């Protein structure tokens, strides 16, 4: 038997052992939501409508994030710009010139006073946006320490920020001093995204190209739990509104729903017709729906309980790179490589 055949045999043995352990722990069907919600009526919904369209970027948009008060959106594009938008009027409030056009991530501080960006320059740049009249705004803090691209930035508050990176790590930073507080190093592949627990920013989930999502506590540097199940890169993660569960999206064309309390996958979202990667996920404010964008220019709204497709929308002309539900729950925003941002309701 060749070495490759031996490796494949060991992989099959490992897969069978995992299945046996899962059955012992969760029963024959661990996807308990589909089982327990069989009597729940399917949700019939009219399609979402585009209420606003934000135009102004000249390059592919790679990231977007809502402000906590749901009135503003920050977007990052390969035109070397961060733009802060008024989500209601569609006006540009601020355009920030970046030193690198390979920007991949952005984020709003909960206070709304700062935004961050990061990308292939391996640097997280922090901008104070309280003065929107400054046309030559520069970063007041640049956080250097990652040895790979910055894939996601999320503020805990005005003093601390988390970053994830292609160097397989996440880092918690002190913004005032520009120094590292804690490094999180348990992943074996590029870390693609992170999400903070609602109401408790000490807890976060990261998704990685090693096919796993991991639960962390910023007060320690150890991984609290590893969630497996995807067959390829985990590109995106999002906490359920109550903080007890989270959703993931992967290159394997599926979304999954994990319950932290039992440490298991309790539902999944897939169709035979979907063959492309999931790029971004987020939940409705009620938690009943999961929104997921895909490489085929469309996004789906899934029934979280039943695992069924509710609607599929295709109004962008290129890849949807990022989506997010506004904190007040009234709107969904999608950002695309077609240089447009659309707000849905």
TrEMBL record:
Signal peptide: none
Stretches assigned to coiled coil: none
Keywords associated with the record: Repeat, Transducer, WD repeat
UniProt xrefs under InterPro entries: G-protein_beta_1-5 (IPR016346), WD40/YVTN_repeat-like_dom_sf (IPR015943), WD40_G-protein_beta-like (IPR001632), WD40_PAC1 (IPR020472), WD40_repeat_CS (IPR019775), WD40_repeat_dom_sf (IPR036322), WD40_rpt (IPR001680)
Ranges for the WD repeats: 54-95, 143-183, 184-226, 227-268, 313-345
The organism's place on the tree of life at top rank: Eukaryota
PANTHER family per the UniProt record, alphabetical: GUANINE NUCLEOTIDE-BINDING PROTEIN BETA G PROTEIN BETA
Protein family according to the UniProt entry: Belongs to the WD repeat G protein beta family.
Name this polypeptide is given: Guanine nucleotide-binding protein beta g protein beta
Organism: Anaeramoeba flamelloides
């Amino acid at each position: 038997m060749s070495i490759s055949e031996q490796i494949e045999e060991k992989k099959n043995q490992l897969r069978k052992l995992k299945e046996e352990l899962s059955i012992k722990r969760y029963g024959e069907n661990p996807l308990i939501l589909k089982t327990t919600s069989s009597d729940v009526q399917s949700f019939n919904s009219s399609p979402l409508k585009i209420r606003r369209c934000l135009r102004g970027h000249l390059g592919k948009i790679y990231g977007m994030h809502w402000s906590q008060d749901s009135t503003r959106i920050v977007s990052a594009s390969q035109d070397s710009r961060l733009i802060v938008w008024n989500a209601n009027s569609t006006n540009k409030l601020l355009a920030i010139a970046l030193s690198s056009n390979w920007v991949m991530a952005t984020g709003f501080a909960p206070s709304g006073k700062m935004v961050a960006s990061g990308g292939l320059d391996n640097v997280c740049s922090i901008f104070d946006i309280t003065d929107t009249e400054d046309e030559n705004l520069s970063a007041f803090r640049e956080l250097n320490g990652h040895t790979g691209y910055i894939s996601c930035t999320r503020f805990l508050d005005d003093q601390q920020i988390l970053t994830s990176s292609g160097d397989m790590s996440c880092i918690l930073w002190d913004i005032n001093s520009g120094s590292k507080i804690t490094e999180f190093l348990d992943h074996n592949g590029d870390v693609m995204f992170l999400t903070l627990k609602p109401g408790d920013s000490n807890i976060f989930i990261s998704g990685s190209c090693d096919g796993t999502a991991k639960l962390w506590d910023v007060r320690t540097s150890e991984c609290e739990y590893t969630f497996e199940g995807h067959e390829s890169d985990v590109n995106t993660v999002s906490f359920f509104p109550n903080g007890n569960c989270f959703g993931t999206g992967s290159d394997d064309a599926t979304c999954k729903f994990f319950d932290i309390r039992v440490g298991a996958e309790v539902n999944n979202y897939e169709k035979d017709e979907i063959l492309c990667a999931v790029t971004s996920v987020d939940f409705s404010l009620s938690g009943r729906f999961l929104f997921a964008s895909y490489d085929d220019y469309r996004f789906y709204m899934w029934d979280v309980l039943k695992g069924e497709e509710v609607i599929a929308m295709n109004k962008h002309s290129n890849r949807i790179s990022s989506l997010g539900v506004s904190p007040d729950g009234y709107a969904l925003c999608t950002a695309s490589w077609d240089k447009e941002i659309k707000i849905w309701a």
